[in-house]
Known about the structure:
The protein has helices spanning 2-16, 22-63, 71-97, 117-139, 144-167, 176-196, 217-224, 228-234, 247-251, 315-324, and strands at 201-207, 239-245, 262-271, 280-283, 286-289, 296-305, 331-337, 342-348.
Amino acid sequence: MFSTSAKRFKTRFRIYLPALSGADQLKLHKHTGLAFRVFILALSLIGASEKTLQAQSSFNRFLTPSDTLQGDRVLVLSIGGSGIYAGTLIGLNQLWYADYQHSSFHLFNDNTEWLQMDKAGHAYTAYLETVWSAEVLRWAGVRKNKAALIGAATGFVFQNTIEVLDGFSSQWGASPGDVIANACGSLLGFTQYILWNEQRIRFKFSFHPVDYTDDLSSRTDELFGAAFFHSAIKDYNGQTYWLSVNPSSFINKPDSKFPEWLSVAAGYGAAGLLGANENVWSENGEINERKDIVRFREFYLSPDIDFTRIKTKSPVLKTCFSLLNAIKFPAPALQFNSSGKANFYLLYF
């Protein structure tokens, strides 16, 4: 049957060809070859697309939180978390503590320093570690309350390990104020999971580089570093810490027209800081006193975006949105400061 059909096809094809001129036959062969190559390419693209979709589907399944405890995910978190913890401590010891002598454990009260910007930084970091730890535990299938408790313990312990290292360093000392700030950050994340099973009030961060005058460059480079990354971590004059509140999560009405993703943020910052307690320092054996530079606190009010409340079915986007929520979205802002002035910024970050 197959051979008969094949013969008929060949016969029809042979009957058709003699009716064409040599040039037409050459064109036919060229077009046939091109069509065949296009067909093969299309099949290849379909196959590649199918593989890509399968890979994407597998990746999406991997990112999707599990309803039941997944032993393999817990194992990944345990090994990965332990590695990050150990690597961070080793790196901190080499970069931060190795150049200074060790001492017996001691405390140091730094509560009056840097207009408490460092305390805001401690609370923010502990909050992030708590929330992200709880989220990855939920991803592994750990139950809500248990994930929240372990997340809070992770944030608190990780941050206070640094205080222990400070306590054994002759240059610093363990700060009770830092411990309290760490506890506040972890509790902010923990209590919201227990009360609402979500974060309605988020701790966020923003930073803008400060343009210092040339006569201050040596001092600011020493304190805050010259590179952007170092400045973002160390320069309190460019940092702002925010509590971003999502009103729609408290309204909780299906017919509410208030955008679910829109939040209102209150920020805290500082300016004029060139020393821990005052703008006086020693440089090249000389005392520099810059009390003409006023140190003051800054308070902000600004709209914000809660990215996790933007509706999407994509696990990839959900993961990205969760990470983006650590940062305050650039927006107009109203500033009040302790020097008695008010300013409006069309776009503040």
